[in-house]
């Protein structure tokens, strides 16, 4: 039988607005205990938005953790309590690209860094695009630039090492497989079982209520 990695104790080390860090004591095969640090996260969504010419939207945003600007998909954190993933994706597409879409499907679900973080991301594909009013950006997003790139060129940039954001890599390659007839999108009604719940449960328990951005 597979081993049951039971958590015997847990300590919250850091509790920040969009992530937290805890240390769990976990039972190991053979009866020993080991500690594991886990970065908690609210989860996120991203969007491969493709127009009728086969181009997708890429944004370039400064990421302080790596000290450089990265080419990425429009994306955002699931930081509104109980907000459906699709609603969050629509909001982020409007806020980051000034776009709305008529047709939506699920491309891939992924866990970005399972060795130490619980962040999980649902990547959508959106078509039938139209321009909508874009709200004023703040912080790093105020410095964000936008580029329309043919999907095939975006795939080539992935293999050339020019697009390195893991979410963008997964979304672009999945979208290219769909357009090439080698894959298919899933229904947006499919549950996102990987969506993290640790931070949301703890904040509800202490009465934080709304988990909107700070």
Concise description?
With 214 residues, the protein is of the alpha+beta class. The protein contains 4 helices and 10 strands; from the N terminus they run E-E-E-E-E-E-E-H-E-E-E-H-H-H. It folds into 2 domains: 35 residues; 137 residues, Alpha-Beta Complex (Nucleoside Triphosphate Pyrophosphohydrolase).
Short descriptors:
214 residues, alpha+beta, Nucleoside Triphosphate Pyrophosphohydrolase, 2 domains, 4-stranded mixed sheet, 4 helices, 21% helix, NUDIX_hydrolase-like_dom_sf, ADP-ribose pyrophosphatase, hydrolase activity
Arrangement of strands in the largest sheet = 7-4-9-8
CATH architecture label name of the largest domain: Alpha-Beta Complex
CATH H-level superfamily of the largest domain? Nucleoside Triphosphate Pyrophosphohydrolase
Helical content stands at 10-25%
Distance between the termini: 45 Å
Number of separate helices = 4
- What top-tier CATH class of the largest domain fits best? Alpha Beta
Report the mean per-residue pLDDT as an integer. 92
- SSE ordering: EEEEEEEHEEEHHH
Number of strands: 10
The major pleated sheet works out as:
4 strands, mixed
Relative strand content: 35-45%
Low-confidence stretches: 209-214
InterPro entries: NUDIX_hydrolase-like_dom_sf, NUDIX_hydrolase_dom
Keywords: Hydrolase
Protein name: ADP-ribose pyrophosphatase
GO molecular function, one term: hydrolase activity
